[in-house]
Amino acid sequence: MPSRLPRRWTPRRVRALLRSRGPTSILFRRRVAVITGAIAIGIVAVLFAKASDAAGEAFARFARQWRWAPLVTTPLGFMALVWITRRWVPLARGSGIPQVMAARDAPIAATRGLIAVRTVAGKALLTMGAVLCGASVGREGPTVQLAAAVMNVSHRVMRVRLRSSVVIAGGAAGVAAAFNTPLAGILFAIEELAAAYEQRMTLMVLSSIVIAGMVAQSLAGDYVYFGAIGAHLPLASALIVVPVAGIGGGLSGGLFAKGMLALATGGGRLTRWSKARPVLFAGLCGAIVAVLGVTTGLTWGTGYGAARAMITGADAPLWFGPAKFVATLATAVAGLPGGIFAPSLAVGAGVGNLLRAVFPGESARAVVILGMVAYFTGVVRAPLTAVIILAETTASRGLMLPMFAAAFLADGASRAVCREKLYHGLSRTFAGN
């Protein structure tokens, strides 16, 4: 059989390669768009995190100096934020993750609405406004929408068509950068945003998630979100604690999701009234948040400080979990921009704190983390993401097997309460935008 002759590098062949793979080719420009977008996402996520944290500290100082003032300022702030959102940036309301899921289905149309610069600029400013009002909101969901919009801008600059896989990658890169957890970002892309495991995800897209996380880590430092806890639980103890944590956390998380979906997509009397009078309804929700915050002093904002204290083994009042649950639900259904990731982790810590009273002889740190995994899974129905986020944000990789068991039990328990996944249900309200 004759040997194959080597190809000659003729001028014609060189020109063809430059057209298909050179600096002016679509393939090259697409790669540049994804890589520069990923770097920009890491920078934007860190800046947004610092701004949100500063807003939270400003409100904390205000609430300490003027304890009763939030009874007036928080409801009025809720009303103003909802009016501004509905008047100027209606697609910025809520978490941000449902918007990215809707954008995934129609990426080109989404560049003019769901992930447009105007929408996400309003999202960032109004989310910080919600934090300044003491709302029980997080920045992680808005970071996902911001990240998808950054990918949109980088593709526009490079004159490349935006694809669904890149929208998914941008959103997941936002998760990676927000929590400093690249692996959790990849799992979130597969488990929640992609909607199906067969979704085509190229190496370049997955790389963008890791790049965004690495850039955020370089700027913010090599830190662990909740601190290096390193919790462990003996097998004999896990066999007792895990079923209770998984089922209890999953049921409570499912109740939260069902309440949100009922007010967002349901047809009940309260839902119809809230949609007919959105600003007044927001004021009532703000009043609930204000009363809880002034009464307890612990339910304001993301709840990060309280959650971290409980993870490290500090004693906390048993009512924290239920109170934070109500404050977060009232904030989430009010219609103002803001995420539920961080507040849900705080509620989960409260659930774990309740379990500490049931299992006083077990490791307090491990029990609280299992409560967080179970409740968070119950809310978002993404068990793999929940486990990896908690494993990476607490450096408790030795607890991963009990966390996986609790997460899958919680997923089943949540499904029994709320059949539809929260973000998938909410994304329908943004379809066609």
Indicate the topology:
Elements: H1 11-21, H2 26-65, H3 70-88, H4 97-105, H5 107-110, H6 117-132, H7 140-157, H8 164-179, H9 182-193, H10 203-220, H11 235-265, H12 269-276, H13 278-296, H14 304-311, H15 320-334, H16 341-358, H17 364-380, H18 383-394, H19 400-417, H20 422-427
Helix pairs in contact: 2-6, 2-7, 2-8, 2-10, 3-6, 3-13, 4-8, 6-7, 7-8, 8-9, 8-10, 9-10, 9-18, 11-12, 11-15, 11-16, 11-17, 11-19, 12-13, 13-15, 14-16, 15-16, 16-17, 17-18, 17-19, 18-19
Structure overview:
This protein is an all-alpha fold and 433 residues long. Helices cover 73% and strands 0% of the residues. The chain has 20 helices and no strands. Helix 9 packs across helix 10 and helix 11 runs parallel beside helix 19. The longest helix is centred in the N-terminal third of the chain and has 40 residues. The protein is globular and about 80 Å long. The model has no long low-confidence stretch (mean pLDDT 89).
Index terms:
433 residues; mainly alpha; 20 helices; 73% helix
Number of helices: 20
C-alpha end-to-end distance: 61 Å
- pLDDT averaged residue by residue: 89
Class by SSE composition: mainly alpha
Number of strands: 0
Proportion of residues in helical segments: over 70%
Shape: globular
Q: What is the rounded Rg?
A: 23 Å
The ordered string of helix (H) and strand (E) elements is: HHHHHHHHHHHHHHHHHHHH
- Biggest beta-sheet profile: none
Which parts are unreliable, with pLDDT below 50 for 5 consecutive residues or more? none
Query: In percent terms, what proportion of residues is strand?
Result: under 5%
